[in-house]
Amino acid sequence: MIEKFGIGIDITSIQKFKKKPFKTNESFYKLIFSKDEIRYCLKFKNPYERFAGKFALKEALIKSIDRKIGFSEIETSHLKSKPIVKIKKSKEKYNFIASLSHANDFAIAVVISVRIK
């Protein structure tokens, strides 16, 4: 049974991440992203677009639910180029629908959450 819907949106500057190169700011990235997320982003020519996109996804998820949650509790991935978000080890059950886009200097993400009883 569906208990509650939520929606979150976030826009993030790609420059914010470009100004913090991974090699000299690794501890910053490890506070926000998992090892798998970092590995995924670093395999691209421009990893900072991907970091900004994943950050926007996490922020949008946080805004879509009605409880406090940290970045490290959120896992992002992709399936056939579509973003997937989930909460690790959550007592509550959620389904999420996510969309992500990069354009020029920004990444934007929208997450719709459905809390299930």
From TrEMBL:
Matches recorded under InterPro entries: 4-PPantetheinyl_Trfase_dom, 4-PPantetheinyl_Trfase_dom_sf, ACPS, Ppantetheine-prot_Trfase_dom
GO biological process, one term: fatty acid biosynthetic process
Domain of life: Archaea
Annotated 4'-phosphopantetheinyl transferase domain residues: 6-111
Molecular-function GO terms, alphabetical: holo-[acyl-carrier-protein] synthase activity; magnesium ion binding
Keywords annotated in UniProt: Fatty acid biosynthesis, Fatty acid metabolism, Lipid biosynthesis, Lipid metabolism, Magnesium, Metal-binding, Transferase
HAMAP family: AcpS (MF_00101)
Protein name: 4'-phosphopantetheinyl transferase superfamily protein
Organism per entry: Marine Group I thaumarchaeote
Lineage, opening ranks: Archaea, Nitrososphaerota, Marine Group I
